[in-house]
Design goal:
Family: Belongs to the bacterial ribosomal protein bL25 family. CTC subfamily.
Radius of gyration: 22 Å
Organism: Azoarcus taiwanensis
Domain Large ribosomal subunit protein bL25 beta: 100-184
GO biological process, one term: translation
Distance between the termini: 47 Å
Function: This is one of the proteins that binds to the 5S RNA in the ribosome where it forms part of the central protuberance.
Mean pLDDT: 88
Strand order of the largest sheet: 1-3-2-6-5-4
Helix content: 10-25%
Length: 202
């Protein structure tokens, strides 16, 4: 899905100027990277607010139409008002088609309800990690990575190394070991006959 939005270059900077922009329904931001000077920009707050509620906006190569010139960027940071539904500032990083990105991508868990852990043992599946750091070229960036839980057995876990990655995508691993992504857990009752125990409690 291609996401594109407009921005204009911003001349006036500073707290006062940013406050005036926000009062006028505008959103201050900055575009940096690709060995170019950082460019302060102004965006439409409502447009960005609605875009930022889409999961894909946070893990996609975006197109900014900056005064008629299009740039490819990714969202790097967003500051939100502590209690209002208001974005205060956004940071975008320019991307090059030939340089790998390092970005967090959401995980989508599928087939948990058909796994042996749930179907045969009556267990529940806990999602331990909901996003993962990846490295890839912009053209290979997935909006999300699917984690298939269909073969998850009772009392077992799915680890990072079990995830089937799209072509061209590598996981950027921090620390040691093989982190757990999802795990099957016993529900409140005893482990013996957990599946049979589901009928009780009427």
């Amino acid at each position: 899905m291609q996401i594109e939005f407009k921005a204009t270059k911003r001349d006036l900077q500073g707290t006062g100027a940013s406050r005036r922009l926000r009062r006028a329904g505008q959103l201050p931001g900055i575009i940096y990277g690709a060995e170019q000077d950082a460019t302060p920009v102004t965006l439409d707050h409502n447009e960005l607010y609605h875009l930022m509620r889409k999961e894909a906006f946070h893990a996609s190569v975006l197109t900014i139409d900056l005064d008629g010139s299009k740039e490819s960027v990714i969202l790097r940071d967003a500051q939100w008002h502590p209690y209002k539904q208001q974005v205060l500032h956004v940071d975008f990083q320019r991307v090059s088609s030939t340089e790998k990105l390092h970005i967090k991508v959401p995980l989508h868990f599928v087939n948990g309800d058909t796994s042996p852990a749930v179907k045969l043992a009556g267990q529940m599946i806990s999602h331990v990690i909901n996003e993962i750091d990846v490295s890839c070229l912009p053209k290979d960036l997935p909006e999300f990575i699917e984690v298939d839980l269909s073969s998850l057995e009772a009392d077992h876990s799915v680890h990072v190394t079990d995830i089937k990655l799209p072509s061209g995508v590598e996981i950027v691993h921090h620390g040691e070991g093989d982190p757990v992504v999802a795990t099957a857990l016993k529900t409140g009752g005893s482990s013996e006959g957990a599946a049979e125990g589901e009928e009780g409690g009427e």
